[in-house]
Amino acid sequence: MWPCDEAPRPHAELYDADMSDVSYDHQHPHIEELMTLYNSVGWTAYTTHPYKMEGLLDRVDQVRCARTDGELIGFSRAISDGVQVALIQDLLVHPKWQRHGIGCHLLTSMMEHYSGLRQIVLLSDDIPEIVAFYESCGLHDIAREEGKAFVRYLYE
Known about the structure:
The chain is an alpha+beta fold. The protein has helices at residues 31-40, 44-47, 50-55, 102-113, 128-136, and strands spanning 22-25, 62-68, 71-80, 85-93, 119-121. The chain has 5 helices and 5 strands, in the order E-H-H-H-E-E-E-H-E-H.
């Protein structure tokens, strides 16, 4: 059983979603629908530069999409060498559809695809609710591995 097969998390009543209408696929979404989804969660690092949105899918290894009535409501993408490591880059669900297990399904599907790899890496904001979400899906802080992660961000 996936962790997301459990009952919805608290506050799921914020939107009375009919989860039977949600479908999942591995098809690359159109740039316009990605722009709409990224804007819905306030992720403007790409949407303020539309030319960057076009490059999002060019070298991606895997994508996962959640849709209802043809509308993109969830998205995740990953890059990998296929042997040792995968980086799950971006996991987002439209705010109206959050806390219904969609993000967990997208993430778990990615993790199952890469289950034979030594490392699955995901970078996230250090916000308690986000940390709790990723931990509920089977990930943990790198400190538990007695390791360090290093990153460089370029802010425009």
